[in-house]
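Worked Example 4.2. Consider the chain below.
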Amino acid sequence: MDSSSNPSTFRFREMENSAHSDTGSDFSSLSSHCADDSDIQSMAGKGIKHLCSELLELKEESVEDFQRNVFSNYSAFVRIFEEVRDVEKELVKLKNHISTQKGLVKELVDGIYLEVLSEETIESIIEEHVNTDPPEPSELESHINDVSETLDLLLSENRIDEALAIVELEDENFQRMQFEGNAPSDMLTLYNSSLCEGKAMLTLQLTHVAENPRTTAPELQKAIFGICRLGDSLLATHLLLEHYHLRIASGIHNLQCSNSYLHGTYIRDLAKILFSMISQAARSFTMLFGGASPRASELIRWACEETKVFVVCFNKYVKSMSEISGGLPKVVESVQFSMSFCSLLETQSLVLRPYLIKHIRPGMEVVLQIHIDHYKKVVSIFTATESWVLGRYLVSGVVNETCSSIMVGKQLEYYLLTSSGRKFVTLLQAITEDISPLVTLQMDGLILRGLVDLFLEYTIILEKAITCDELVTEKGGSRINLAETLAQKVSVLVNLSTLEKFFSNIIRSTFGSTSHINSELMRNDLVSDQQKELDSCILFIQEASCQVRAHFCQQFIHGMMSMGTGSKCYLETCIDGRKDLMPSIAFQVLFLELRKMEKLVEDCVFEVDWLMELLRELIEAIFVWISNNKEIYAISEEDLTVQHSDNFKKFALDIQFLVEISRYGGYFSKNSSVLVTYMKSAFLSAGLNPERDGMDDGWAINAVNEAITKLLMIEKRNMLSNDDSVGVVEEEELHENQSEHVSDSEDDARSYTNDSMKSCDDVEGNTALEANLNEETMIVNTESNPPREEDNGSSYRTAMNTKDSSVEIEDVSSKKAANNTDSVDINNKESGGETEGS
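Applying the procedure from the previous section yields the following structure tokens:
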């Protein structure tokens, strides 16, 4: 207790002593003076109260002192409590250790005893076998009983190794006795039965160990090896493979119960479980039977069966992937994981890759087809807003790094593509980048067919955009915008030509490599088949592209011929009473349309070689059409007798006009004899003989030259007046054409003819022509220069009868390229116009 309480205590004692002294003095005073009783009682009450107050103070101070002591010593109490707990734990550990040591000592004692007993037993059995003399029947029977009892004892004590040693030793002894033939047959039979019984009991016990799912790998290996020592390798193989089958099934079940299926690691974990278990089984099998065991086929068959289980899970997983949420890259990644783990087994002579590829191929076909169908919908969506305006795209901006690194051949500076074509290239590159790893898995044929199918779908859309007359709606609801103007249709063909080259290049570079094939012999076997498949696909693509071009030519011819071919004879009377011959409206329209297409080259829109090839195909198609539709001219035998009949002149004039505009454009400059061949074929199809029925005069050539000159003048005047409409008046209505700049001069037109026309009459002729365009319904019915005197017709007959078809005309195709310097922007849209005649 603190010293602060001492003053109160001492004060209390002093007051008590003072009270005693006062009381003594009071009693002495009472005794002596006999004081009053009331004074005594008053003093006693005060003392008691004072005493009570002092006691209460003492109690409070005692409680405070106790609390201070508890607070000051609390941490020491806690520390002591924790130390006591740690001591208790140490005591428990010490107790367990003592128990363990006690058990080990007991096992050691028992082991030494059993070892001594076993050695004595085995030594006694060996000593019996050392005796070369055949034992007596009674001794042999006693030996058999001893062996059976020993085996029972060892099996009951789970001493498998010792039991195996005894069985092997007794089996050798039985074989020796059977070979020597000294022992009675009944005793040998008894001996053999006893051994078989012991083997069966030992095999059963080892089988129980192997079938226990909790058995560790070393214990399993030891049990199966024991069964092999007993001579039952078939059972040993079955138990080994069954053990790993159960482990695989358990691993797959646990994996399916986990969340790896949702997180995208399901196939990787599944492949790791299955192929690692197959690898462990193969190692155990090799340790038991060696690398060249006759039972290796059973291991391979079992591995294939387990791989089928993986294929079922794999197909179920990949089919559940959504094509919209990036499912294709995940599927490819899953295949790569599967093949990677499967390839690790090849170091153990287990080649399961071909088997796995064969069985996952059907599932991959379904998955790829699902994604290809989805990409078809994507293509139809981005073609729904296509305006079919051609644009130049730098190759570096179109081809990504991955495709650029594998592209082969000469690279262009830019690609000519429409908007949808540009998007299709991007889509094609993305698909190729995603699925190109499957090429190394010998799935290139599967991928190639899918890409070709997608390209064909886009080609069909382009064909519909060119050939259809009304808006087309696809099955998915997407609309196909039509290419209405000529420039739009040609842009579609250029776009398709660019895509054809790009597609052919990318599939050759992607699928043409054989570096992924390890075996040189296999590479040599597959390269020819692979090259044939690539060539077949590329040929198919080219045929599809040519088919679109052919449809374009057919539609062009149909539209051109519907304007007036075969309607009536185009002989019109001029003001002075003379007649000017003009080709059919259809061929006049053809000439002007071809001029528009040529200007696309002059304006640096398209490549010259490509457009010349298209125009050449168009002229060839027109000749074929004339040969197949000879009835439109209705040339009769009477017309043949009278060469100057209207039908004959119309036919000859149209054919000659077609030949001359082909020469004028230089479409057959590389092989002019082809043009003569087509001309002769047209005459023959009409029942005419080119040599016999050829005109003796040159009226057709002269008329054609004048017609071309007039058409060029009309074209020039329309361009100079900034009129977007083409100066062609049809019988019913005029179609829209592409706006063009002035390119050809009047000198260009005149240089085409053999004889120059009188320049003094040009102005008058042009004025009359312009007035006539506003009044007549025919495409050209003008008053111009009077007809020139006809020559002797030698030029026309020469064109019909010579191979080079040389007609004395000036080649102005080279002058056109040199004189035209104007250019147009590639994205200019066509503008059509109508020119009405009265």
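Residues 133-348 form one domain. The two ends are 138 Å apart (CA to CA). Compare this with Example 4.1 before moving on.
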